[in-house]
Amino acid sequence: MSYFSYLQCSKCGKEYSKDEPHNLCECGGPLLVRYDLHSIKENVDKNLFKTREKGLFRFKELLPIEDEKNIVSLGEGDTPILKADSLGEKIGAENLYIKDEGLNPTGTFKSRGAAVGVSKAKELGIKTIAMPTAGNAGGAWSAYSAKAGIELIVAMPKDAPDLAKKEAFIYGSRTYLVKGLISDAGKIIAKGVKKYGWFDAATLKEPYRIEGKKTMGLELAEYFNWEFPDAILYPTGGGVGIIGIWKAFKELKELGWIKDKIPKLIAVQAEGCNPIVKAFNENSEASEFYTGANTIAGGIRVPKALGDFIVLDAVRQSKGTAIEVKDSEIIESLNLLAKTEGLFVAPEGATLVAAADKLIKNGFLKSTDKIVLLNTGCGLKYANLVEEELQVLEIDADI
Amino acid sequence: MSYFSYLQCSKCGKEYSKDEPHNLCECGGPLLVRYDLHSIKENVDKNLFKTREKGLFRFKELLPIEDEKNIVSLGEGDTPILKADSLGEKIGAENLYIKDEGLNPTGTFKSRGAAVGVSKAKELGIKTIAMPTAGNAGGAWSAYSAKAGIELIVAMPKDAPDLAKKEAFIYGSRTYLVKGLISDAGKIIAKGVKKYGWFDAATLKEPYRIEGKKTMGLELAEYFNWEFPDAILYPTGGGVGIIGIWKAFKELKELGWIKDKIPKLIAVQAEGCNPIVKAFNENSEASEFYTGANTIAGGIRVPKALGDFIVLDAVRQSKGTAIEVKDSEIIESLNLLAKTEGLFVAPEGATLVAAADKLIKNGFLKSTDKIVLLNTGCGLKYANLVEEELQVLEIDADI
C-alpha cells in the first residue's frame, strides 16, 4: 500500500531508515519522508483515489503508514472546497475558493497531521508521545492518541484557547499550562523528553505530521482536475501546511500527474507576530525569533518556526509572497466571511480574506486568478471573538 | 434531476402542489415530500451515488431541489461512520458504530435540514424565513441563509448555548432571546409570521428539513452495502432525524434497493424531558406537553414535538423502543466516548452511549447486533460541560 522508502534530512540530505522512530537529523534539520515515486508512477493510476472511501487515507500510496491496521482515523480530510462568489465580489476575485478545514475532527486542519502522526507512532510501537502546542494541535493529537490508546503529554500556553484546554483534558491527555508562549512550552517538553524518553512530536521534530498536511495539496490538485490553482493563501505559524502543500506539489510533479502551473504559495501572518514576513522581505534564508508576539490569532502566534527556512524556500520557489494583516482586519474579515459565505472561521483563517484583498488591490494577484483561501479551523473554537448583542423578549412578547 | 412529485399531509393524506411555498396541511398535519419512485426505479442505479462528489446533494434524485443552481451548500453530509471497538468492548457491543454528525458545517446534523430547507426556500423565491430554535438549528439556518442571501429571523430560549447565540449573530440573522422554552419562542415566531408574512421554518412546519435529515438514512444504507443496521439510536427532541431515517427506509424499500432487515429505531431522551418515552410506554399515539423540562442536553429539551405521532409510529413499526437517561449518565458517557474513541460529542449524542449500555444489559439489543449511535453534534458547542483541572507551570519548570 505505502511506497514509503526512507527518511531524509531537509538540511544536509542525510538518509535514515523508515523502520524505527526518528526525530531531527544529527545536524538539527527536520526529516522528510521520501517515497519510491518511480514505482508509484509505474503502478498507480491517479484516478484511483477518487474511487476510494473518502478521507485522507485514500492517498495511502503517498502516505507513510505501511500496514492498514495501524490507521487511526476519525474521519479527517476531504474537507469541502467552496466557491466563494459573494465574498469574491466584495474583494474583486472572480475565482475565489475556500477550503474549509474546520470540518475536520476537533475542528481544525491539525487533525490531518495528528491522524498520520499518531497512526505512524502506533505502527512504530511508540507508547508515549509529548508535544508543545498553541492549542489546536494538542486537541487533535489528544483525540487521536485516545483512539489509539497511546499516552499523550501536552504543554500549552496558559492563555491558549479554553476549548483547546478542555479538549486535551476530556480526551485524557496529561496536560500542562505554561506561563509563556509555545516556545516556552516546547522547552519544558524537550526537557521531559530527554528525562523520560517520550517520543517528541513537536512541529517538524517528527517527520509524519507534514505528510498529513500534504494531503491538503493532494486534494486541491485532484479537485482542480490535477492542476494547482494560481495561488494558495495560508495562515502561517509553524508553517507545516505550506511545507506539506509544497511537498505535494513537488511529488505530483515528479510523478507527472499534474499540469505545469506552479501555485503561488502565500504565507499570511499577523502584524503582531510576523517573523516569516520580515525574513521574506529582508531576503533572509531563515527568520529571527519574534519578541513580544501578540495577536488574537493564537494558532499563528509562533515567534520562530523550526521549519522557517523550508517555508521561505517554498514561498520563494513558488513565486509567492508573505504578507501580514492587523488584528482589526482579522475581526472584520471574520464578520465578512460569516455574512457573505455562511462560514464562521478561526481568526487564522480570517487573515486570508484581508490578505487576498490587499494582494488583489496591489496587483500581486489578478482578479481572474484561481485563488484558494485555506481556512485552517472552525470559529466555534474562538467564540470569545464574537460579542453578540441580542434583544431579550418576555414569553408573551410581539416582534 | 429531482423526482419530486407532490406534497402530502402525514395526517389526512391531502395532496399539495410542489410549486409554491406550503407549511402545514389545513388539518394541521405536517406535509411530506413524495417522489415518483416508480420512475427512479426505472431510471436510476443506486450505485451511481457513490461516483458523485461527496455531500448529501449527491442523492439529488431523492431530494426536492429541482434546479441545481438553487443548491446552497457548505459541504454538509457524508459524515464519518466510525467503528467504535474500544467503546464497544466497554458496553459489550461487538458491532458498534458511531455516525459523527459533528463534522457537518456549524457542527451539528442541523446543517442537513438547513441545506435542503434553505435551498428549497431559494428555489421557491422566499425572501424571509423565521424560526424558533433550541439553538443549533438557528446556527445552521443562519449560516445557509447568509450564503443564500435570504433574511432569517430566529428566536431561541435565553438559556440556549452561548455558541448558538454567537452563531446566529455573526451570520447576521435577526436574533431574539426568549425568557422561556423553545415552545415559547415558537409562539412568538408564529405571531410574527402571521403579522409579517415571513415563511415559517419551525420544525415540521416546512416540509423540506426532513428531506435533509433523510440523507442520514441514505448514507447509512449505502455504507452497510444497502442493508440497514440492526438498530439506530437517536437523541430525540423534535424527532425529525427519526422521521427522516424512517422515510429513507421506506423509500429505499419501495425502490427495492435494500435488503429486508428493518432497523430498530430507538428514541433516546433525557429523564428531565421524556414526553416520547412516556407516550411510548403508555401506548399513546401522541405525546403530552412535558412541563418543567430540564436537561443539560438542550437539543432534546423539547416538551412537545409537532411530529410526535410520526416518531412514535416509526419507533413502533420498526420494532424499536424509547428510553431515557439521566443527566449524570450523559456526562459519564461524554467522558467515556472521548477517552475510548477520541470523540468529543454533544450531550445529545452522549445520551446514546448510556442508552445502548442499558439496552444491551436488559437484552433488548444483542451484543452481536450491528448498532449505530447517531451523534448529532460536536462537543465544542458544549464546552461548559467540561470542567478541566490543569496544572500551571512556570516558564522554567520541569515535569
UniProtKB/TrEMBL annotation, chains A, B:
GO terms for biological process: isoleucine biosynthetic process; L-serine catabolic process; L-threonine catabolic process; threonine biosynthetic process. Its cofactor is pyridoxal 5'-phosphate. Coiled coil: none annotated. Residues 72-377 form the Tryptophan synthase beta chain-like PALP domain. Pfam families: PALP (PF00291). The keyword NADP does not apply. CDD domains: Thr-synth_1. It comes from the Bacteria. Its EC number is 4.2.3.1. InterPro entries: Ser/Thr_Dehydratase (IPR050147), Thr_synthase-like (IPR004450), TrpB-like_PALP (IPR001926), TrpB-like_PALP_sf (IPR036052). The modification N6-(pyridoxal phosphate)lysine is found at residue 110. Keywords: Lyase, Pyridoxal phosphate. GO terms for molecular function: L-serine ammonia-lyase activity; threonine deaminase activity; threonine synthase activity. Belongs to the threonine synthase family. NCBIfam families: PRK08197.1 (NF006050), thrC (TIGR00260). This is Threonine synthase. It comes from Clostridium pasteurianum DSM 525 = ATCC 6013. The lineage of its organism: Bacteria, Bacillati, Bacillota, Clostridia, Eubacteriales.
